[in-house]
Amino acid sequence: MDISRRTLLQSTVAAGAAAAFATGSPAAAGAAPVVRGAFGQPVAQALTGHGPIPLRWLEGGTPAQLVAGTTWGVPWPRGALSPDQAFALVSETGESVPVQTWPTGWWPDGSVKWTAHAVSGASGRSAGYTLQPGTPAAPASAITIDENPGRVIVDTGVVRVEFPKHGPNLISAIRRGASVIAQDGRLVASRQDGPDTDGAEKVAREWFKSEVSEVKVEQAGPVRAVVRVTGSHRKGNRSWLPFDVRFYLYAGSDGVRVVHSFVFDGDENADFLTGLGFRFSVPLAAQLHDRHIRFAGEGAGVLGEAVRGITGLRRDPGAAARDAQIAGTWTPDPATWDQRVTSRLQWIPAWGDYSLSQLTAHGFEIRKRTSSGHSWIRVDSGRRARGLAYVGSPAGGLAFGMRNFWQLHPTELEISGAGTDLATATTWMWSPKADAMDLRFYHDGMGQDTYPEQLDALEITYEDYEPGFGSPYGTARTSELSFWALGATPTAADFTALADANATPPLLVSSPEHNHSAGVFGAWAPVDRSNLAKIAVEDKLAFMHQHYVQQVDQRSWYGFWDYGDVIHEYDRDRHVWRYDIGGYAWDNSELSTDMWLWYHYLRTGDATAFRFAEAMTRHTGEVDVYHLGKYRDLGTRHGIMHWGDSAKQQRISNAGYRRFYYFLTADERVGDLMHDLVDADKTFLVLDPARKIRTDAYTPQPEALGVSNTTDWGALALAWLAEWERNGDPIAQTKLINGAKTIAAMPNGWAQGGTLRYNLADGSYAEETERTVEVGSLDSVFGLIELMTELIELIDDPEVTAQWVTYCRLYNGTSAEQQEATGVSWGSQNLRQAYSRATAYAAHQLGDVTLAQRAWREFRTGHAGYPESLAFTATRIDGPAVLNPVDEAPFSTNASAQYGLAAIQNLALVGDHI
Q1: Domain housing 797
Q2: What are the tens digits of pLDDT across the range 797-833?
Q3: What keywords appear on the UniProt entry (predicted)?
């Protein structure tokens, strides 16, 4: 049966379903907010309000530049503020800074849970700010938007950007005053029909250009505007590689931030991408010696050249001319130069084409040539470029670049035709200089044609293979680009500041203490070093996190498809992570690595921790999840190729792993990814996760789906929680509460076994009357524990609370305790250190000191994790035992993620009993 997304979201829920929360959208201007309780009833008490909170820049200090502006999120306690609350932003010097505010999350009582805020890079920057309820300052030049059926024009007060609603161009022109700085902004892609690596005598290549299908203004100022452009790449009758591109513009700024996402929907055996880029044409009217090229290197390095250089010649034009060209300002009239130079300018080559290519994480090269048809010459090279270039003149030009430039190799910044009236500036997200993108599966199946053979192979390589399941069709990647329409060639210092902002976009953040006081994201608390026992745990958490950050660089976990992920398990014989051994390779969010990293940031406020978690969120939500095709909304279990394993499951596409980043940054792309999963339960009609081991006769039916009440339901419920928080489709809240209530109504709640059947229409489970038990070690380690910690506080349902607390108390309990409560012993369960946080939760809820002490014993024993006796230290391994010197520690990623989550939650829940 084919049930469409629209049909599901418009379905009528069953008569007994919980009513939708009446949180509503932000109150109309001037109207008092209607505050309602968990089931829609009005709340009598008044909102409590909230005082000012401090903000700082994530990396500290005061950034020299922003990418157009910055947007960040702030949480608020339940019952404090109404969704229409206005905010003022005040700098350290007392200046009121223009700020735009909107709610992104709501509590069940209708009060605001999360707000997003935006400031422009044109505002004076301060090392710190205070955010407080109040009237925001108005920008000196607010954003204006002019829209008609053919185009959208956004005017920031400095630049005007025109978005045509049809055709090949995403941007038709960027104007600064009367000047067109850049035009014909379009996407380009190329493919060939065979790889570069198989020695084919001939391959056919073709080029595609973008074709816009829709332009939508998602936000219209006054400080921040967002324009979303969707479409695909087209040549002739073929349209493929759908894209979703958002443009962010800020009042008074000449910068444009771009979030570019595309989905691979080709045939991996016939479509080998050879280039993927964003291209502008840049008009150039100045003399060749007044046209400038800039590239940012590593550190503060900048290469600055002119298209026609007048320094180092056999004859000297004069210091004034040389100094002006080096500075990027207008050179004096050539009539004032030494005429031995002026009369021979035509003999000086004009270098019209430049390229900075970063084909690996460890080296870039800059080359140039006069024009097509002539040889390239090497300019210089370096290690890791910051990913920004410029072409223009003292009258203005375009700075263009890409974030994570070297991390997401193979990349390239290319300038061509700078010797003509119209240069071309291309940001290559996949460089044409690299080998063609090869997404074919890495082996031929090795005879694994049946389920028994596949299960047997799983026993040796830990890879769950199935023919046809290792397809990249529907996987995606998001890249962040930066453009500045500058009024003049930037100085070297200004250009390096732009490059820094491009590489690490500055972000404002609230403190761990404030975020914790708001009561968001469940059980965690800021770092606590108040006694020796806590210090010991904190030191281990810090060391473990630092080791993984270090491993990313030492092991070169970089590249277009790989950056952001880590490897699953370690091979201590080879002193390498098991990158080439089946399911032991890329982690793909297994056992909630993403969650561990985000909780680590929440506790510490550390910039490195944020950037590490951010990179993982960008990767796992795109590359490890299908966005099109028959596996849409499913993620792929860990493996050598991110999409290679045949276990396609909700536990990986899990919206709970993205919530942190969305609410902390208000990132619309991540919001889309979470929203897409609202009806992800429909995938159980298409693919049965238990198909290889099922022994019963089972045919998926919408009213009787085989959806587990733990791992499966927990992942689905986290998507519904995110949608409910964001005041989205009410079916999410309905399914969330129906699921929790009907599971709790089972005789053994979340421990209930047997043939559970789930109803797709309303999210409820069929009634269970027989007391059975089915408990597995993976049941709660994909976000279920974290979900329930939040959900119980939100819905305040005694039966749900009691059943979940019982489950938490019993998992590591004795057989006698389990048998008394559920009728049967649960057997010898794994991951007992991980589940020490379940014990801690039960202890916290019950006020049981004995349970709290038991939780710490379980944690220290370290079953299937890290016992207290394990030394959290690293050993240096040098050549010839390894290719490159590395630091080796006794970690596996499963154990690390669960150790981190258990330690963090135990400290928060029963820290006083450590």
Answers
A1: 525-690+702-913
A2: 999 999 999 999 999 999 999 999 999 999 999 999 9
A3: Signal
